[in-house]
Amino acid sequence: MQLNIKINLIVLLMLSLMACESDMKSYNSEASHANVALMEVADEEMMEVPVTKQLVSQSDQNTERKLIKEGAMSFQCEDVVKTKAEVDKIIKELGAYSSSEGQDSYGQNLNYHQTIRVPAEKFDALIQGLEKLAVKVESKDINTRDVTEEFIDLETRLKTKKELETRYLEILKQARSVEDVLSVEREIGNVRSEIESMEGRLNYIKNKVSFSTLNVNYYQLINPDFGFGSKLIASLSNGWENLLSFLIGIMNLWPFILLISGGTWFFIRWRRRSKAA
């Protein structure tokens, strides 16, 4: 009887060990599968750069050019206030807007400067409208920058990163150990950070391409040059004003003048009496 019990216990123990071994093999298999998947995704990331360059060269031939147009313009006007009103009118008609503006005076000039963002297709119309307001165009500088290659590269890399994110999320579902979960989540965080950075740069380029930028400065002469007759009259007027200012200054000093005069008189009188004695 005791022999039968011992045999049964041995059989149960062997079955338990076999079950544990099976579970361990299953767990190791799943963990190994997760690690292999991680390595495959890492290999795909290593291949991303050359693949992206190939796609850029292929897409670059069929994609509309992405151009950023920027410029600066300076001109003289008759009246800054009236010109400002006309500039604002042009801005409104073209669907543009002023991102910054300000006024200052320097020497004989009263200046007003604006940074205007205008739809790219209306940039030339803005230049032409401003030139009509000018008495004299001092300077005009226009620059066009081609960002097509950078734009396509960002789009391609962004697509690849989003695909990698999807793969990592699938691997995360297969991970069983805490170490694997943390490792996959760390990779997902890195990929999402890169995705956000690329999306931000893409949006910036799209905005710059859609709206061109023009820095414009216009000014009026506060004291324009006069002719000889006007200068002569101005000189006489200034001389008369200076004389009046001098007399007024003397009148302000009358107590000191009276005190000095009185002191001088008493000193001279005292000297004379001293000599007479």
Could you please describe the fold and organization of this structure?
- With 277 residues, the chain is of the alpha+beta class.
- It has one domain (25-225).
- It is 69% helix and 19% strand.
- The protein has seven helices and five strands; from the N terminus they run αβαββαβααβαα.
- The protein has a five-stranded mixed beta sheet with strand order 2-3-5-1-4.
- It is elongated and about 130 Å long.
- The N and C termini lie far apart (165 Å).
Essential attributes:
277 residues, alpha+beta, 5 strands, 69% helix
Question: What's the layout of helices and strands?
Answer:
Layout: H1 2-59, E1 67-76, H2 80-93, E2 97-106, E3 109-119, H3 123-132, E4 136-146, H4 148-174, H5 178-210, E5 211-221, H6 228-252, H7 254-276
Parallel strand pairs: 1-5
Antiparallel strand pairs: 1-4, 2-3, 3-5
